[in-house]
Amino acid sequence: MSSTLFKSTQRFDAAIKVFNGLTSPKLPILLDQIAAKAAAFSDPDGDGDAGKLFSLEQEAALTKMLGIDADRLGTVLRAAVYVFETAGFAGAKPATLADELVGAGMDADRATAFHDAWVAQGAAVISGMRSRTLGGPSELVGSAFQLHQRVGSAGATLLRDASAVVELHVRGMASRPGMDLEGSGGDATAASAAAAAAAAAARSTSAAPADDGGGVRG
Fold first, then answer.
1. pTM, whole model, 2 decimals?
2. What pLDDT is stored for residue 80 in this prediction?
3. 86/216: higher pLDDT
4. InterPro entries, from UniProt (predicted)?
């Protein structure tokens, strides 16, 4: 049996081996904590550093609890966040997540621990992911528009080169307060293209589906 959700890579396969080698009965508790922290995880640097989920003191305690070194703990944290976020993007049900992990080579009892953590925290993880992406429940609260036009002549031909910049201000994206859209083209083409982009963004934010509190069912 193979997994269609988790592709086999050297790093992921190594992480599976680390999980399979864990003997601590507290692994389910740790996975639940990781999922809960991942739901509210803010990564302003954009580097995906899962180690930021825990303080240095907490990481030291986790290495003792799991009986592993700091490098393997980092592997566990990064892989767990990856698993939960992948399940969130796919909208995977808990049973499907467990089956996919077993298909990727994870022992059944470890996969069950992920299943249980996803039952408890899956809806919160998905909600947190939505709030951190442009496709999430953001509200357009303002915009700014600038049109630039350069006019020159070449022989008897009048040349006009127009460009436009639209800045959209959205609420609900703490680390991304604004977004610039640029367009260019002849005459007023750039202006109309940028204005159309702003209108489309406004429609998409107002038509965003309401959060039903789930997306994950057992």
1. 0.60
2. 95
3. 86
4. COMMD10
